[in-house]
Amino acid sequence: MVAKVAEKIPEKVTPKMKEYKLVESPLHDQLNSAAKVIMSQMPEGFEGVVGELALGTYGVHPWQILAGILMNAFQNNGMAHCEFRPEWDMPVALPRSSAVCPQCKQTFSPKHLGQKFCTSKCGGIFAKAQRVVK
Ligand SMILES: [Zn+2]
């Protein structure tokens, strides 16, 4: 099954939207877990965009989106253009285990570095309230 997917992807060709069917396998599970760990170190919103591209736009696994971004950089000589975040230098740069949402005051487990709100809904309500105040 995995080989079939690989056969369908010629080199240097960007897949068309929804061209692929999700293939379930332990390898995909493992790679998706690794992708999740990497995405936990990215700013808020990153994982959502990857998820949207994976399941909404391309119909592939999240790890394949990350790999596709890397392939794009590789094929376009973009490998040396790196941007590092200061948090990545810390010994443990995982998100805090719990935080209090400034909007609903509930305790939640952040999934991303710098995540302030429990949900994007709370973030939206907070931002809207800030605009009204000004
Ligand atoms: Zn909240």
Walk me through this protein's architecture.
This protein has two domains: 2-75, no CATH class; 95-133, no CATH class. 46% of the residues lie in helices and 3% in strands. The chain has five helices and two strands. The protein has a two-stranded antiparallel sheet. A hairpin with a 6-residue loop joins strand 1 (99-100) and strand 2 (107-108). The longest helix is centred in the N-terminal third of the chain and has 14 residues, at 26-39. The model is unreliable at 1-10 (pLDDT under 50). The protein binds zinc ion.
| Total of domains | 2
Q: What string, H for helix and E for strand, traces the elements in order?
A: HHHHEEH
The end-to-end span amounts to 56 Å
Shape by Cα distribution:
globular
Give the tags:
disordered N terminus; binds zinc ion; two-stranded antiparallel sheet; about 5% strand; 2 domains; about 45% helix; about 130 residues; mainly alpha; globular
How would the blueprint of this fold be written?
Blueprint: H1 2-8, H2 26-39, H3 46-58, H4 62-75, E1 99-100, E2 107-108, H5 120-133
Antiparallel strand pairs: 1-2
Helix pairs in contact: 2-4, 3-4
Quick structural overview:
With 134 residues, the protein is an all-alpha fold.
